[in-house]
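Re-running the complex after MR caught last week's input typo. The corrected sequence lines follow. Everything else is unchanged.
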Amino acid sequence: MAEEPILFLESVSKRFGAVEALSNVDFDVRAGEVMALVGDNGAGKSTLIKGIAGIYNFDGGQMFWEGQPVKIHGPRDVAALGIEIVYQDLALADNLDVVANMFLGRERVSSFRRLNESEMEKACTETLKSLSVTTVRSVRQAVAELSGGQRQAIAVAKAVMWNSKLVILDEPTAALGVAQTRQVLDLVRRLADRGLAVVIISHNLHDIFEVSDRITVLRLGRRVAVLKSSETTQQEVVHAITAGTLDTVPGMVVQ
Amino acid sequence: MSAADQPTSASETAVSPSISEQVRVRWQRIRAGDVGSLPIILGVLVLVVIFQILNPNFLTPRNFVNLVVQMAGITTIAIGVVFVLLLGEIDLSIGYVSAVAAVFMTLRLRPPGGWPWPLAVATALALVCIIGIGQGMIITRFKLPSFVVTLAGLMVWNGVVLLMIGGAGTVVIQDKTIIGLANFFVPELLGWLVVILGVGLFAVGQIQGWRSRRAQGVASSPMIFMVATIFVVTLVGAAVVFVANEDRGVPFIGIFLVVLLVGFTFLAERTRFGRYVYAIGGNAEAARRAGINVSRIRIYVFMISSLMAGMGGIVLSSRLRSVDTAAGGGDLLLNSIAAAVIGGTSLFGGSGRVISAFLGALVIATVNNGMGLLGLSAGVKFVITGLVLLTAVLVDAITRQGRQARHRLMQSAG
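Corrected-run output:
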C-alpha cells in the first residue's frame, strides 16, 4: 500500500444556505486500499462524494490529486483524472446488453463509423474475466435479465475498464442478498489488490469490517474519526457515528 | 427482408456453442417471452390464408404488386415513428408534416416556371427537417411532453397545408420522375440484377461479420446458421422478383423501401447514434451520465421523424399523382403509428426495430387490401385494424410482464 494518498481533501466545507453540510473535513485515500466512509443520515457522506465527483463545488478547502492541487469544474474533469463513481442506482440501461452498457458513451467504431461489436465484446469479456466476474453467463444478455449482484458487478467493471485509479462505490450492497453481497465484496477487495484506491460508502458495518483497510467516520458534517479496520471494533465505530466528539455544533456557528 | 439478421443472434453463450445448443437457447428465449417478430409473421400468414379463402383474387401477382405500392407510404413514415417510439416519445404531427412536404414539392413543380424535381424534393425535405428540428428543440428546451408539442404541430401544419393549396383544391403532379417513384416498374431483367446485387451484398456483409467475430475470438454462431440465413434471404428475394415479374415487374418503390429499411436499420443498430437512441429510451439518466448529449439526440430523432414523414408524403402523392386539401389527413397518422406498434416497437421506449415499420405496414396494408377486395365498408376496415392494433399491444404487454416476472424470480433467487 502506498504511503502518499492518491486523493487528499484538505479542510473542505460546503454550505447549503444556513446548513453547513461539511465543515473543514479532511479526507484521504491511498492507492491499493479500501477506505470506508460511514456516518448516520445527514452526516455529509453524499455531499463529500458529490464534491469529489464535481457535482457540487466545495466552498472552502483544497483537493489534491497525486500530490498536486486540482480544481474540479464538473464531472468530466473528474473522469479525466481517473476517478469513477458508481452510484446506488447504477445507471445501467436495462434494454441494452452488457457490452453496450460497459461501453456506453465510449463506443469503439471501425470503418464507416460502424460500431466495432466484436472488439468491444472481446474487451468486455477480458475485463470481466480479469475481475473474476464469472457469474454473467453471456455478455450479450440484456442487463434487465441480470440479478442485482451481477448488475452491481457490471457497474463496477464499467468503472474499472477506463483505467481509473480511484473508484467510489455508493452503497454497493444495499439491495443485495447474502451470496450476492459476498460476490460484490470480493470484487471490491480485488480492485484494491490490483492497486486501485477504493472508497466505499455503506451502512453495513459487518460488510465494512470485512472489506476495508481504514474507516473515516463523519458526523454532522465533521470528520470525527479515522480508524484502522484491523485495530478497531464495531462498538467503537458505532460510538463514533452516533456520539462522536464535536467541539461545536455545526450550523449554530455565531458569525 | 433481413429479419433474421439480428445483432444479438450472433452469440448467445460465452463459449462457442454447438448447433443443438443454439437451437435450445433460442427456443428457451421464445418460451420466455422473447418472441421477436414471430407473432407478427404468423399474424400476416393467418390474414393471408383468410383473405385467400374468402377471395381467390387475393394471392395473385397483380395484387401482390399492388400491396407493395399500397404499403410504401405508411412504411416510410413508420420508420421515423420507430425512432420516436424508441425514445419513449410520440410525434402526432407526422400526418400533416408529410402533406407539407408533398404540397410544397407539388407547387414548386407546377409549370410554368416549375423547379427541376431534385431541387423541389430537396427543398421540401429540408423544410420538413427544419420543422422536425424546431419541434424537437421546443420539446427538449422547455421540457414539454412531445404529445402536446406535436399535437400543436398537427393543427398548425394542417392549417399550413390548407393555406398553401388555397383555392386550387387539387393540384396534379406532371413531373414524370416524381410520378414514376410509385408508378414505375423495373423491367424483368433489371429486377433480377437488382435482387442478385442485393443478396450478394447481404451475403458479403454476413460473411465479413462472421469472420470478424472469429478473428477476435468472440463467440460466433455455427457457420450453418449464417449459410441458412443467406439461403432464406436469397429464396425470399428470388420469390418476390419472380412473382412481381408475372405481373408488371418489381415496383421501383419496393426497391426504394428495401434501401430505406437497410439504411435505417444500420443507423439504429450499427452506429453510435442508434445505440444512444436505445440507451435514452432505456434509461435517459444513464445516457446522460455516460456523457451522451441527450437533448441533441432527441432533436435529431424528431428531425428523422419529420424527414421520413416528408418522404412518405411525397411517395403517397406520387401514387395519387396529385395533392389535395385532404392530404395528410384521414387515417394516415394513426396508421403510421399503428404500423410501428403492430410491428413490435414498444410504446414504452427502448425496444423495437426498424423492420417493425415494414411488418406493421404489411399487416395494415393486407387488411385494407383484403377488405377492399371483399368489398367491405370503411367501418369494418377500421374495426378490424383497431382489433389488430389492440392484439399487438396486448402481445407486447403480456411478453413484457412475462419478462418482468422472470426477472424478479431471478433476482430473488440470486
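None of the earlier attempt is carried over here. Confidence is low (pLDDT under 50) at residues 1-15 of chain B. Chain B touches chain A through 39 residues (CB under 8 Å).
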